[in-house]
Amino acid sequence: MMMTLSLTPEQQQALGKVSTLYTVPSVAQALHSSTTLRFGLIADPQYADAEPGTHHPRYYRNSLCKLDRAIAELNDHRLDFVVTLGDMVDRDWASFDAVLPLYENLRHPHAMVIGNHDAQVISEHLATRTPAIGLPKSYYQFSLPGYRFIVIDGNDLSLYCTAGNGEQRQQAQAMLNLLEQEKRPQAQPWNGAVGLRQLEWLENTLHHARLHHETVLVFGHYPLAPENRHNLWNCEQLVEMLCRYQVRAYFAGHDHEGNYARIGNTDFITLKGMVDGADRLPFARVEVKNGELTVNGYGPEISRVLPLETPINAY
């Protein structure tokens, strides 16, 4: 049974079936394979009933067919779970009506990361309620023997916060203003940050995982490295923490071109966006065995074999 995150009754009622995005995946008690962790990754389907973008090669309507094909392929493999790295939809509350039924066909436990487009659509929907309903937080953890999986919420401090989130939107605007003054590339209104309470929760979770000698994998929408205009506003703070706790890998979406960096013993992997191109269909299966991480890329997604200890490299 799926466990819903701590949505308020008002949030639960206003979100309706979209509240399924705020659930912790119910994974098995043990790995399907005694030696290898296996999971799937999807990034930025970004569906909308809209014409292709004029400034970006985004084919919004095509994402339904693409997502259906990706789910069918992932269903053919024995996986422990699947993660969507954000931006299930591009715009319009009605877009969820078309996308959510496709995920009902997924045979694996599903972990959802809330992307900036998801957050904007959800926030605009909640803003129609009186009194104002805040954008729900979506950071959580789940585990399998020997592994800890952490999903972070990069919309925690963002311009998508509403009056129902208290002063968090003002805090986000102040952080963005400072980054703009410092001419930081990630100083973009469509990015966000991890707030103080979430940072404390993250460090406590990483500390607990270290005490139990667990391999940690972290999933988020906004990239953390290398330096990029799509990165989380406070990406440097997150990189320092994840590397200090020897997190094995961090997976993100948001930058549709994809990216990669290795810092210390941590791999930072950004998947390509599914919505880009009329027929391009990037997604991935990942395997972890004895610390070695293998990304099996589909379509234009890059396949990688990443040993536990390799020279620092970025490309």
TrEMBL record:
Pfam families: Metallophos. Residues 38-257 form the Calcineurin-like phosphoesterase domain. This is Metallophosphoesterase. It comes from Rouxiella chamberiensis.
